[in-house]
Write a structure and sequence with these properties.
7 strands, 39% helix, globular, CBS-domain, four-stranded mixed beta sheet, three-stranded mixed beta sheet, alpha/beta
Length: 184
C-alpha cells in the first residue's frame, strides 16, 4: 500500500464537522445530532475539529475527550506511563484509586454541558499529525500503536484533512479483496 498517500484517504477539512473554541459542549453535541439527522451518513462523524478565530484547526474533540472531561480525575493520571496491556485488576485499581465516576451521570452532564470546546479539546501533536504525502502505511502504524484518533493531515503547516480508523480499514479491506486473483 506504499503507493497510496495520506491525501488519497483523508476527508478534507472543508467536509468535516467543525466548531469554534468558544462553542459549548451542549452546542457541539447538538450540532452533531443535527448533522446526523440531515446527512443520514452510513458512517457519521463522531468527532469535531476545533477552529480558532482565523479558521485554523487548533484541536479536535472526540468521544474519548468528552468522557475524560466529564470525569476530571482522569487528568491526574500519567497516561504516558500506563502499561501497554490493561488487565482487569489494573483497570479496577485505577477506578478505585482515583474514585472515578463517583458523581451521578446526570450531574456530570449538567456541569459539562456549559464547558467550552476549548476546555475539552485535544491538541494534537507528534504522530497524530501526518503530512499529505506520507504513505498510508504511516497512518496504519499510528492507528495500531493507539495514537489519539482521528489523525489530522497537514500541508505546509496547515491542517487540511482528517483520517478516521474506519476509513483506513475500508481501504485495507478493498486492497485485500482486490488480491483475489493473486491467491493461489
Amino acid at each position: 500500500m506504499k503507493n497510496f498517500k495520506v491525501k488519497d484517504l483523508m476527508i478534507p477539512v472543508e467536509e468535516y464537522n467543525r466548531v469554534t473554541k468558544k462553542t459549548t459542549l451542549f452546542e457541539a453535541l447538538l450540532h452533531l445530532e443535527q448533522l446526523d439527522e440531515e446527512q443520514k451518513q452510513l458512517h457519521p462523524h463522531r468527532d469535531l475539529l476545533v477552529e480558532d478565530e482565523e479558521g485554523n484547526i487548533v484541536g479536535k474533540i472526540t468521544m474519548l475527550d468528552i468522557f475524560k472531561h466529564m470525569e476530571p480525575a482522569y487528568f491526574k493520571m500519567d497516561n504516558k506511563h500506563s502499561p501497554n496491556s490493561l488487565n482487569t485488576d489494573f483497570v479496577q485499581k485505577i477506578y478505585r484509586d482515583f474514585n472515578l465516576w463517583s458523581e451521578p451521570l446526570d450531574s456530570l452532564c449538567r456541569k459539562n454541558a456549559v464547558a467550552t470546546v476549548e476546555e475539552i479539546m485535544h491538541r494534537p501533536e507528534g504522530a497524530e499529525i501526518l503530512d499529505e504525502d506520507d504513505s498510508i502505511d504511516k497512518a496504519l502504524h499510528a492507528f495500531v500503536l493507539g495514537v489519539h484518533q482521528p489523525l489530522l493531515v497537514r500541508k505546509n503547516g496547515r491542517i487540511t484533512g482528517v483520517i478516521r480508523l474506519g476509513d483506513a480499514f475500508d481501504k485495507v479491506r478493498s486492497a485485500v479483496l482486490a488480491c483475489e486473483g493473486d491467491i493461489a
